[in-house]
């Protein structure tokens, strides 16, 4: 058993919420990535004895659920899976009452839901840290794992060019902000009408002004991937948008990541995808299952990144 201390202490995040990357400083993100790498080498650290994380899911999940639950177990605590259809929340108990009640039982709450405002409301009324496990607007835990993966593969973040191709969604927003904070150049190519939201663009541009990186927004996927080090893709239809599936399939067809598109990137480009993927829609099988793909390393990194986050939020380090 090893209890390894991170090189940088994580005191800025102790007791706080983690709702988006907007309010997390580059040095805290860097500290989380360092801690995640250490936890990857020494996964079992019994620092959370008696601590419980409530995990509320209003949408499906494989990675987020299992990585948080396994992560809590590896740190000596318990992850408690709560489906909203079983909670009184699903029968009309208010978010505020749920927050106050859970604050008396557990040490932190992770929630996956639709409206981002619901997570903000939960955080406002909870006395304990609240973690965003995906909303319609942000997926910050995913972005932490994405940054960890890019750093592992490229050996750095500063100056790495990341091209996101597809829907201007939750994953795109968090990736863009995280990359801008850590010094990656970001190019986002989305069809007209499906662009990234203004709030996320502003946050990314502010971060880019500090880190000295470039944010490119375009509707041209070829322009975005040119000389890219990383090509990132996500589903065309996110959870909650199912009725738009047919329309999106045709709008997004030119945004498929395939052999022709990746030929414009650097030869040693890395393909990333938050998963789950729809092969032959947003990405062809030869690319996602090919030698440049790191999607399973990326998925595994959810575990390590979130354990670092949990440790930062819940474990007082001196
Ligand atoms: N990437 C991601 O969040 O996966 P799940 O929906 O399986 O949690
Ligand atoms: N954009 C996708 C990500 C799934 C992890 C969604 O919200 O469904």
Structure summary:
L-ornithine binds at residues 170, 234, 238-239. Helix content is 41%, strand content 13%.
Written overview of the protein:
This protein is α/β, with parallel strands linked by helices and 318 residues long. The protein has helices at 26-41, 63-74, 95-103, 116-125, 140-154, 170-182, 198-211, 221-225, 245-251, 259-262, 285-288, 295-314; strands at 52-57, 78-83, 108-112, 130-132, 161-165, 185-189, 215-218, 230-233, 270-273. Strand 1 (52-57), helix 2 and strand 2 form a beta-alpha-beta unit. Mean pLDDT is 96; it is low at 1-8.
In terms of topology, how is this protein built?
Layout: H1 26-41, E1 52-57, H2 63-74, E2 78-83, H3 95-103, E3 108-112, H4 116-125, E4 130-132, H5 140-154, E5 161-165, H6 170-182, E6 185-189, H7 198-211, E7 215-218, H8 221-225, E8 230-233, H9 245-251, H10 259-262, E9 270-273, H11 285-288, H12 295-314
Parallel strand pairs: 1-2, 1-3, 3-4, 5-6, 5-8, 6-7, 8-9
The structure holds phosphoric acid mono(formamide)ester (CP) and norvaline.
Phosphoric acid mono(formamide)ester binds next to helix 2.
Number of strands: 9
Using the CA coordinates, give the radius of gyration: 19 Å
* Structural class category: alpha/beta
* Order of strands across the main sheet: 7-6-5-8-9
* Helix percent band: 40-55%
Associated small molecules: phosphoric acid mono(formamide)ester, norvaline
Mean pLDDT: 96
By oligomeric state, this entry counts as single chain
